[in-house]
Specification:
Elements (H helix, E strand, L loop, with lengths): L1 E12 L3 E3 L5 H5 L8 E3 L6 H12 L3 E7 L2 H10 L11 E4 L9 E6 L3 E5 L18 E7 L5 E8 L7 H23 L8 E6 L10 H4 L4 E3 L12 E3 L4 E3 L2 E6 H6 L6 E2 L32 E6 L1
Parallel strand pairs: 1-4, 9-10
Antiparallel strand pairs: 1-16, 2-3, 4-6, 5-6, 7-8, 8-9, 10-14, 11-14, 12-13, 15-16
């Protein structure tokens, strides 16, 4: 059957608690607040609506997500902006709290049932002192309508915030561990199974950090099928840079079975100051803000 699978870093999809004015900062630090003293901040209808439009435009059946605050936030987002989403929303949302101190997690929206979930947030480096994944490597078995299982690995590698070169060793460790996970799950030849590794790997090519993963002969980065000038998925306003940070990696068996499958990169949610975008923006997108994200959703349709 045909399945559309995608990835999208939604850039801070939050619905954080708003504390009443009479709750002191000391109380907050001591975590003594109660639900009765708080309420959720509502979605603005600006940024989040445009984010929903970007998701709806790619019509993914299975969509890996990054920078989601929690499960309640994702459910509220789907409920409020259902009219923009494909087929009126996703019946199978998933977020598991991970390791990020900003509380940005990876998750999934699926039109199909989820059979099994495995978190790798507790995987530790050889010294046992540090977790490997900045957020998680979320492993999800999705049961397709014809009975087959498609395994999806949702990732969000260490950011370049402290410097690209300085943070490369962490991303390289994450890439190496992901290769190990694929071998542990699928054996000596992982490429013979049906799986997709996706997400924001927070680096662009060429990258010594990503080589341990991307150089494997049993997978394919399908964004490479596009022309080089069409492969970028992220806009960095600081230096007016355009790079591919978001990846869809198909197992070799899936890639071989779908030689003509080309990914689609949806850029209409980017701010208008991203001048390389030539298509009209979604209604309401501003020069800087509001916007869907600084990342673009990426989707590919494949036969599974």
């Amino acid at each position: 059957m045909r399945v559309r699978i995608g990835t999208f870093n939604t850039e801070n999809l939050f619905a954080r608690f708003r504390f009443k004015d009479d709750i002191s900062q000391d109380d907050i630090r001591r975590e003594t607040w109660t639900v009765d003293a708080t309420r959720f901040m509502p979605f603005s209808g600006g940024k989040e609506r445009i984010t929903a439009q970007a998701i709806g435009a790619i019509r993914a059946d299975i969509l890996g997500l990054q920078e989601i605050e929690n499960m309640d936030t994702l459910k509220a987002f789907v409920r409020q902006f259902r009219q923009f989403l494909p087929d009126g929303g996703y019946p199978y949302p998933l977020v598991i709290d991970g390791n990020d101190r900003r509380l940005i997690d990876v998750g999934l929206l699926s039109r199909f049932p989820i059979d099994c979930i495995r978190t790798h947030q507790f995987d530790r480096a050889a010294n046992g002192q540090h977790v490997i994944f900045s957020r998680d490597c979320l492993e999800i078995d999705v049961r397709l309508p014809h009975g087959k299982i498609l395994t999806v690995f949702v990732n969000h590698f260490k950011s370049m915030h402290e410097g690209r070169t300085e943070t490369m060793p962490i991303r390289r460790l994450q890439a190496e561990r992901l290769v190990e996970i694929l071998h542990e799950r699928f054996g000596e030849d992982p490429g013979s199974a049906a799986w997709v590794v996706l997400g924001d790997l927070n680096d662009y090519l060429p990258s010594p950090a990503l080589e341990p993963l991307l150089k494997q002969p049993w997978l394919e980065n399908v964004v490479d099928r596009l022309r080089p000038d069409q492969q970028w998925t992220h806009y960095y306003a600081g230096n007016d840079e355009y790079h591919q940070l978001d990846f869809l990696l198909l197992s070799k068996s899936l890639a071989t079975a779908n030689p003509q499958a080309l990914p689609t990169i949806e850029r209409r949610g980017l701010p208008k100051r991203a001048r390389q975008v030539t298509s009209p923006r979604f209604d309401g997108v501003g020069a800087t803000f509001p916007k869907a994200s600084d990342h673009c959703p990426v989707v590919v349709e494949i036969e599974v």
